[in-house]
Write a structure and sequence with these properties.
With about 290 residues, the chain is an all-alpha fold. It has eleven helices and no strands. Helix 3 packs parallel to helix 6. It is flat, with a radius of gyration of 26 Å. The C terminus is likely disordered.
Length: about 290
């Protein structure tokens, strides 16, 4: 009696396991690239740590009355605080590279038309985040610090601890950087069909109120910084709403022309055909 041959093992679990491991390795590599970039930027800026600190502290120092200065209440603060500012500056400078690593990890799983839409959104997100930080540094900080100095009670000297100042600056940079992403968020939510621009327009009053509530949560408890965050946030919402309406109108025109929605594969096929007919300068057309 002949022995029965064993049935071949199902290759699907092994393939899925291999795919998962390859994705984890790719994620690890991208994470390492990001850490190396931040580390290189940090070590390049370390010799200028005091200059970085002086640059970030300038908005407050410019408003302090003569004879007043910041103080350090902890033994290690004069050494650690400039280094922390330098690390934050290194992360800020390398944000485009960090986001590129994220893009390089996610992009292989996207369709071609999704890549074309995601790349402008990614670039605009970086620019808007930097714009939010610049707005906080050049507009908000001078106004808020001047107000704080002007309302000092008689007999009180303003001597801010450098560690407390660092916490304040970080929170403000983060708040304004995130708040300036509102247009990108509105466009993305519209594209994926979560929200409708016309319904958002009908709720302007609620969104205006929500902008002040969010500003009150993200900023320190002073009216000046809250107003200076809420107003730009609402104006940026209007910009995002305008762009979202344009996208919806274009989609409506396409549907009115009798075009059925294309599948993912059909969209990519049309993009390939367009690139063959209109090759980019320096790029060979696909055969």
């Amino acid at each position: 009696m002949s022995a029965e041959k064993p049935e071949p093992a199902d290759p699907a679990p092994a393939a899925a396991s291999g795919s998962l491991i390859s994705h984890l390795i790719e994620l690890r590599n991208r994470f390492m690239y990001a850490l190396i970039a931040v580390g290189l930027a940090f070590f390049a800026l370390v010799p200028f740590a005091n200059e970085v600190y002086a640059l970030i502290a300038q908005p407050l120092m410019a408003q302090l009355p003569k004879g007043m200065s910041m103080i350090a209440t902890e033994v290690a603060s004069p050494f650690l605080t400039p280094l922390k500012f330098t690390l934050a500056a290194a992360v800020t400078v390398t944000i485009p590279f960090l986001l590129y690593q994220l893009w390089a990890f996610v992009a292989p799983g996207l369709y071609k038309h999704e890549k074309r839409m995601a790349l402008p959104l990614l670039l605009s997100s970086v620019l808007l985040f930097y714009a939010g930080m610049a707005f906080a540094y050049f507009v908000v900080f001078p106004a808020v610090f001047k107000l704080m100095v002007d309302v000092l009670p008689p007999g009180v000297q303003m001597m801010t601890d450098i560690k407390a100042y660092m916490d304040f600056v970080f929170s403000m940079f983060f708040a304004f950087g995130i708040a300036f992403e509102v247009p990108v968020a509105v466009v993305i939510l519209t594209v994926v069909g979560v929200v409708n621009p016309e319904k958002l327009a009908e709720k302007r009053s609620y969104i205006f109120l929500a902008a002040f509530v969010i500003a009150a949560v993200l900023t320190p408890p002073d009216v000046a910084s809250q107003v200076m965050l809420a107003i730009p946030m609402y104006l940026l919402f209007e910009i995002g709403l305008f762009v979202a309406r344009l996208l919806v109108k274009r989609k409506a025109r396409e549907e009115a022309g009798g075009h059925r929605p294309l599948t993912e594969q059909e969209m990519d096929a049309e993009l390939d055909a367009y690139e063959r007919q209109n090759p980019v300068s320096g790029k060979r057309p696909k055969k």
